Amino acid sequence: MGAAEPRAEQLAEQIRAAAGARTPLVIRAGGTKDFYGNACAGERLDPRVLTGIVEYEPTELVVTVRAGTPLAELEAELARHGQMLAFEPPHYGEGATIGGAVAAGLAGPRRASFGATWGGVRDFILGARLLDGRGQLLRFGGTVMKNVAGYDVARLLAGSLGTLGLIVDLSIKVLPRPAAELTLRLEMDLASALARMNEWGGQPLPISATLWFGGRVFVRLSGARAAVAAARQHLGGESLDDEGAAALWRGIRDHRHQFFTTDDPLTTPLWRLSLPSTAALPQLPDSQLVEWGGALRWLRLDAPARELRALTAGHGGHATLFRGGSGAARAAGAFTPLAAPLAAIHRRLKAEFDPAGIFNCGRLYPEPKAT
Q1: How far apart are CA 136 and CA 220, in angstroms?
Q2: Using CB atoms within 10 A of its CB, is residue 157 exposed (0-12), middle (13-18) or buried (19+)?
Q3: How far apart are CA 217 and CA 184, in angstroms?
Q4: In this predicted structure, what is the pLDDT of residue 109?
């Protein structure tokens, strides 16, 4: 790791001092996802001193990168070799880092592509190094898929929002960029769109993203040129020019699309609903934006959290207060409360990695005071 090791040791010393004094720490790099999760306070622990690509062999489709590396910098280097991060992580700002992207566990439009190649953030994490709450440097997993020692622990960091420790570096599986991409636009209502998107999911189509908004479905096709051309003929619709398509999917990924920017999030909270793709919720307004073949639904709605979560749970899903909200909405927590057995597992994991309870306290769920 070379020059990065003294910087990691400096962070470890800060962690050990905080643990000894029971001083809360807030792990924060560029701050582009400060809005996500519950509020937490404490002394800042900044991982941006850990930057740079450690190892990258394009023929192996694996990159090892320090957690404070800007996400845009990593993506640019992968693009130079015709490769990409398969989970298309959102940036939400210029300061986004790869460590923050993994800790947030958020994937972009490509997350629910139809095919075994794609997946969520944790599906591409091969290994990681972590500074735990004792200031110890722990290593999990490796740099190849067959090296599974500790693999699940490395994947556990995806979506942990910094509550288990500070990620030092990550080994990530990457994928080749598709030879061809094309976005189609079709006119249909939401019910028809859900039916069609699920129908397409059972067919051998090179679909890498779907979106419904305002009476229109947008379908991105990615793959071999012949496969994309054949799918275009099969699906019909109107094709977008390359520039317009790229702007559309960037806008969806980074929430710059008009759906996300029209309303004031303080008065109209943004909810993220994770549901079975076929779920029909007639109780919800049509002012939705639907991704992932119907499995991810964004909703602007000022409604009691308890009622909305009960509704989604009845359909086998859950609701996250993603951005905005105040008062009772925020008091209910950003995330759906865990069932008692899962909450116990969460507490045990937190105690194992962070026995003094100093990392991002309460960012995921309320936590008992350390003794």
Answers
A1: 44
A2: buried
A3: 8
A4: 95
- State phi, psi for 329 to the nearest 5 degrees: -60, -45
Cα distances (angstroms) measured from residue 257 to each of 29, 144, 261: 25, 37, 7
Cα–Cα dist 346/54, whole Å: 31
Q: For residues 186 and 189, what is the distance between their CA atoms, to the nearest angstrom? A: 10
| Cα 305–Cα 156–Cα 23 angle in degrees, nearest 5 | 75
In the structure encoding, which two tokens stand for residue 191, read together?
A: 């019910």
- pLDDT tens, residue by residue, 179-191: 999 999 999 999 9
Amino acid 270 reads L
Q: Indicate the helix (H) or strand (E) that contains 127.
A: strand 125-131
**CB-count burial class (<10 Å; 0-12, 13-18, 19+) for 57:** exposed
Query: Cβ atoms within 10 A of the Cβ of 258, count?
Result: 10
Cα radius of gyration rounded to whole Å, the chain: 21
The 10s digit of each residue's pLDDT in 308-359 is 999 999 999 999 999 987 777 788 899 999 999 999 999 999 999 999 999 9
Query: Which residues, 6+ apart, have CB-to-CB distance to 1 below 8 Å?
Result: 8, 54, 169
How many whole angstroms separate alpha carbon 253 and alpha carbon 71?
14
Per the listing, tokens 């075994």 go with 116
Query: Is the Cβ–Cβ distance between 235 and 228 less than 8 Å?
Result: no
Please name the amino acid found at residue 152: D
Task: Select from 21, 25, 32, 30 the least CA-distant residue to 11.
Answer: 25
